[in-house]
Design brief:
The complex is a heterodimer of chains A (about 200) and B (about 525). Chain A is an all-alpha fold and about 200 residues long. In chain A, about 65% of the residues lie in helices and about 0% in strands. Chain A is built from nine helices and no strands. Chain A is globular. In chain B, the strands form two sheets. In chain B, strands 6, 7, 8, 9, 10, 11, 12, 13, 14, 15 and 16 form an eleven-stranded antiparallel β-sheet that branches. A five-stranded antiparallel β-sheet of chain B has the order 1-4-5-3-2. The chains are: A mainly alpha (about 200), B alpha+beta (about 525).
């Protein structure tokens, strides 16, 4: 199995952004409401998708997204055109999620012992299960584990970076991620079985 | 140019050759650390690939909630459009008034005075109304001289004599009829030596139906007027003195009783006007006030309305350790008198807020974690802040204010006048140098710019200043007033953080100059 370098992934998206994105950014710097709304409409669905992974439900994800966009508008003048703008917005959303976690002072006290951790994920399982279902499964995780899982598995942070961000030890980050990973695999296996059970009519 | 490029390139090449192939052996644990961060299989890659493409459409209400939290910066542009012209109007008006003051001296050139026929026996007539006598109005008065008095051998008694107007080199004065000998000695008339000329001790003769108070006011005004008017003259030579017998123009009721009018012509055009010669009628409704003072600075701290953080302990600590201090304020106002009692003012001023705080530090307990916010600068991030005096710091804000005041004078005509000034001012935050205890009382948030977290925004102040004003002269007055100023809005930009409403109690001095 080829090892992959999971160093910090910078979003190097080569997508066809709207031609007037610079104009939108400039308008947002000037505080023009029209451009702020355009920026929100362009990124809202994607950023909400990101926040859904960090929140326990859609309502919390929307709160997270709202705060994230407020921070984007308040600090957009600090964006120096040195990188991808979407990546910059996404970083703000992720940092906001981390801060909200810190504010709630959640500790890694939640237990994952009750979960059957013997799930074996086959190659085609993840392909069959939709992204929305996977996000829903991620939401079922306790918050601390969910945060570390997102940061390591999806965002590509190293354990050292995670330990600095969350102000925990590197060992804690590794052990918690290991448990989160087992949980996720078990949840995926269980969900896959449910999806593939033959339908039985009630007697 | 190419020589320099080539020379630098050679240097770079030599450095590259020297160090380009240097190798260092990594430590044994490096590989283990790399491996520990690598996933065991494709699980993470698959999950990431799947969820990164996940989109979720938000509800329509989300934008409204975001919009309500971000400042409407366009308003700043509108405000700039409003107060920049206001400043322009203010300074422009001051410049126009100042120019007009000096321009008046130029209007008294070469207007021939023609005095029509009506002989004035008494100026006590109640039908007389106040009229301004200036060169523009005296344009059709035919002057008839009764007698010419040569200046060489006689002395003019300037007491009980009042200058009514200047017209170029000619002056119309009113003098007491009792002074029969009216002449001037060349040698006695010198620049600025008014005291030598005044040598009469005779007072105004009172008539039966003459109001005593009016008499007193006339005498008082004459004395002030003559001394002041003469002191500004540069009378190098008097050409002629003539008595005006017919003057149909009704002069001010403060003109003396039973007086004759003289026309004094000098060789020099007296273009300079002593400003103290202005009567009340000649003053405009505008004035400029300079105000400066000291103030004690207080701050009202309140918890935010909608925040998941409990700021109770934080606010309690800040109230204990942040102590009011004294700072200064000052500015200029352009006043407009609506009437004798009411006056409105606007202008520009600078106001400073200072508080000091002293504290002690200790290690935080295991449960304490300092908050981290984008744009926040945290000092002492690992220290729990306590009430104490081991260390000190400062909170300072500076505003540029655009005030709008209204003033009511209780006794405007008196020498000592009591007033009350109230109004609002818009404070534009122009300087921030502050530090205050962060959330959970761990660490200090340092603000050196208004955009630093949690942000400082512009605000509205409400003012109440009872004022005591002393009239030094017709144009200038000084005053003193205790001041009270209160911020109507919070200066904290972030709605989820501790809200601050500063207020000030102080004392100020004013210097007002009419035009």
């Amino acid at each position: 199995m080829a090892a992959r370098n999971h160093s910090f992934i910078i979003f190097d998206l080569i997508i066809s952004m709207p031609i007037n994105v610079e104009e939108i950014i400039k308008g947002c710097i000037d505080g023009d409401r029209k451009y702020q709304k355009q920026l929100y409409e362009h990124f809202a669905s994607k950023m909400l998708g990101i926040c859904m992974r960090y929140a326990k439900d859609k309502a919390e994800a929307e709160d997270m997204m709202q705060e994230g966009f407020v921070k984007v508008f308040m600090s957009i003048k600090n964006f120096r055109n040195e990188g991808n703008f979407e990546g910059w917005v996404k970083r703000i959303m992720v940092y906001n999620a981390i801060n909200m976690f810190k504010i709630r002072k959640r500790k890694f006290r939640e237990s994952l012992d009750s979960i059957d951790a013997d799930g074996i994920v086959e190659n085609n399982m993840i392909e069959i299960i939709s992204a929305k279902e996977i996000v829903t499964l991620i939401q079922q995780m306790p918050e601390g584990y969910r945060l570390i899982f997102n940061l390591f598995a999806v965002e590509g942070y190293t354990h050292r970076e995670i330990s600095e961000l969350l102000e925990i030890s590197e060992g804690t980050s590794k052990s918690q991620y290991s448990r989160a990973r087992q949980f996720m695999k078990a949840a995926l296996t269980k969900h896959y079985k449910i999806l593939n059970e033959p339908f039985r009519e009630p007697k | 140019m190419n020589l320099f490029v080539n020379r630098n390139k050679k240097f770079e090449d030599s450095i590259k050759n020297q160090i380009g192939d240097v190798e260092y052996k990594p430590s044994e644990s490096s590989w283990e650390k790399i491996v520990s961060n690598l996933p065991e299989d494709d699980f993470e890659f698959s999950i990431a690939d799947k969820v990164n493409s996940f989109h979720q459409n938000p509800e329509n209400t989300n934008w409204e909630k975001i919009e309500s939290k971000i400042p409407f910066k366009n308003f700043q542009n509108i405000k700039r459009i409003v107060w920049i012209p206001l400043l322009f109007i203010f300074f422009g008006s001051a410049a126009v008034l100042t120019f007009k003051t000096f321009l008046n001296t130029e209007k008294q050139n070469a207007v021939s005075i023609k005095i029509k026929s009506e002989k004035l026996n008494s100026l006590q007539d109640e039908s007389f109304q106040k009229q301004k006598i200036n060169a523009e109005k005296i344009s059709s008065i035919q002057f008839l001289a009764k007698e010419n008095i040569k200046p060489s051998s006689k002395i003019i008694n300037y007491k009980n004599t009042r200058l009514l107007t200047n017209v170029g080199s000619k002056k119309i004065v009113a003098t007491n009829n009792q002074n029969k000998n009216t002449s001037v000695s060349k040698s006695s008339i010198k620049p600025g030596v008014s005291k030598q000329i005044i040598n009469s001790d005779k007072s105004i003769e009172k008539k039966n139906n003459f109001d005593e108070s009016l008499s007193n006011s006339i005498e008082k005004e004459q004395t002030n007027n003559i001394e002041n008017s003469i002191s500004s003259y540069k009378i190098n030579d008097v050409k002629s003195i003539s008595q005006i017998t017919n003057l149909p123009v009704k002069v001010s009721p403060f003109a003396p009783l039973n007086y004759s009018l003289l026309l004094i012509e000098t060789t020099n055009d007296e273009k300079r006007i002593n400003k103290s010669k202005y009567s009340e009628d000649e003053l405009t409704r505008f004035s400029i006030t300079a105000i400066t003072g000291m103030q004690y600075c207080y701050n009202i701290l309140t918890a935010p309305a909608n925040s998941s953080i409990n700021f109770t302990e934080n606010i309690a600590l800040r109230r204990k350790i942040e102590l009011p201090a004294v700072d200064w304020n000052g500015g200029f106002l352009l006043d407009y008198e609506i009437n004798d009692n009411w006056r409105i003012s606007t202008g520009v001023s600078v106001s400073n807020f200072t508080q000091n705080f002293q504290y002690s530090i200790t290690s935080p307990s295991a449960n304490h974690q300092p908050i981290s916010e984008p744009g926040a600068t945290l000092s002492n991030p690992n220290d729990s802040i306590l009430y104490g005096n081991a260390m000190g710091n400062r909170i300072k804000y500076t505003w540029t204010e655009i005030p709008l005041f209204i003033t009511y004078s209780f006794n405007p005509k008196s020498k000592i006048c009591f007033e009350i000034m109230t109004g609002i001012s818009y404070g534009i935050i122009s300087g921030v140098d502050a530090a205050f205890v962060s959330y959970d009382n761990v660490g200090l948030l340092v603000l050196t710019d208004k955009s630093n977290f949690p942000g400082i925004k512009n605000n509205l102040f409400f003012h109440v200043n009872p004022h005591v004003n002393y009239q030094i002269s017709k144009l200038v007055s000084v005053g003193v007033c205790p001041t009270f100023k209160y911020s109507l809005t919070s200066i904290t930009a972030n709605d989820s953080w501790v809200q601050q409403q500063p207020y000030f109690i102080g004392i100020s001095a004013t210097l007002r100059r009419k035009f």
